[in-house]
Design brief:
Low-confidence stretches: 170-178
CATH class: Alpha Beta
Strand order of the largest sheet: 6-7-5-4-3-2-1-8
Strand content: 25-35%
Largest sheet: 8 strands, mixed
Distance between the termini: 6 Å
Radius of gyration: 16 Å
Oligomer: single chain
Helix content: 25-40%
């Protein structure tokens, strides 16, 4: 399966909004969210993607078809340090889960932002915690740290690692272009 990861632009906003609705629907099962009176979820806003040059949205495609979305912020969620990439949101459509799409999507994002990373999961999302431990563990050969955050900012596991020490899957010319192509 060919996986492609590309940074979204303003023209992708309608697609991002629809994918984020699917993400919020899936997440409502874990966190108990409800749709608003207009029939849509409102707890994830894409405003920061366009208003903050440190916030980036990515779309994943599997064999050319939409497969997922991610939002990466070049700023620590916990300290505000701008030398840290933070995985703000990450969603892979159910059809593509357990097929390697999420792993390749994540690795492509890690490669695009060499340096320190934070990936956090809300405490009730145990499937996400297992996914991230496995993906980050393979990506770093086990060289990552995990802590459990219990604060006003977050409640759940947080994995941290340095992608610069792990950037092995693609040449610099590709990760600096913001597009990743991974083929079997």
């Amino acid at each position: 399966m060919k996986i492609e990861v590309a940074e979204a632009t303003r023209k992708d906003e309608p697609v991002l909004e629809r994918l984020v609705q699917l993400y919020q629907y899936d997440f409502s099962e874990i966190m108990g969210g409800d749709v608003e009176a207009d029939g849509t979820f409102h707890y994830i806003s894409l405003g920061g993607v366009w208003d903050d040059d440190r916030t980036h949205a990515y779309i994943a495609r599997a064999d050319g078809l939409l497969a997922g979305v991610a939002i990466v912020i070049e700023r620590s969620h916990f300290t505000g340090d701008t030398d840290v990439a933070y995985m703000d949101e990450f969603f892979v459509m159910r059809k593509y889960r357990r097929a390697g799409v999420g792993s390749e999507f994540a690795k492509g994002l890690f490669d695009m932002f060499p340096g320190r990373w934070e990936v956090a999961e809300v405490a009730p999302n145990t499937d996400a915690t297992a996914f991230w431990r496995a993906v980050i563990g393979r990506y770093t050969d086990g060289d990552f740290e995990e802590r459990v955050e219990d604060s006003d900012k977050w409640n759940g596991p947080v994995q941290t690692f340095d992608a610069a020490r792990c950037r092995h899957s693609m040449p610099e010319s590709e990760w600096t272009q913001g597009i990743v192509r991974i083929e079997d």
